[in-house]
Amino acid sequence: MLVMTPAARKSQRRKERRALEARRGKLGRTxxxxxxxxxxxxxxxxxxxxxxxxxxGMEGPLRAGIRADLCLQGWSWGTADLTACxxxxxxFRRVRAVRPTWNExxxxxxxxxxxxxERTRCVRCSAPLPEGHHxxxxxxxxxxxxxxxxxxxxxxxxxAVRLAVNSKRKTS
Length: 172
Ligand SMILES: [Zn+2]
What we know:
Blueprint: H1 6-27, H2 29-48, H3 59-72, H4 77-94, H5 139-171
Helix pairs in contact: 1-2, 2-4, 3-4
The structure holds zinc ion (ZN).
C-alpha cells in the first residue's frame, strides 16, 4: 500500500489542482462556469421532471456528450474526458447530489427478509417463462442446466481427489 507523507500529499494535491486549473483555463473560466451551471440545471430539470430516477441518471450520456463536443473541437480524448469529469463533478456538487454507497447499489439492498421475487425469465437462456413454468422455459433448458451442474459437481470432486492425493504424497 502506498503511504504518502503529509508533504507529498500536499504536493500531489497542488499538482492535481494545477492540472484542473489548466483544463479550466483551456476552455476559458467564464465559459467553463456557464457550462457547469447549464449542466446543473439540466440535471436538476431531468430529475424534477421524473426523466431520471436519481440525480446521477444523466451522468454517462452527459460525460460522453461533453467529451465528444470537446474532441470535435480538437481536444485530445484524455483531456476532453478529464474536463467532462471535472465539469460534471462541479455540477453534481451544485445540485447537492450524494453518490449512493456500494451497499446501496446492490440488488439485495431492496430485498427485505421474507420477500419473494417471482422469476419471469428462464434461468439458463433468459427467455420469458411460459405459463406454469417457474424456473426453466422448457425441458431442454432444464436438462441442460442439470447436466451442467452435475458436471460442475463432478469436476469439483475430481479436483478434491487430486488435491487429497497430492497432499498425501507430499507428507509421506
Ligand atoms: Zn430456457
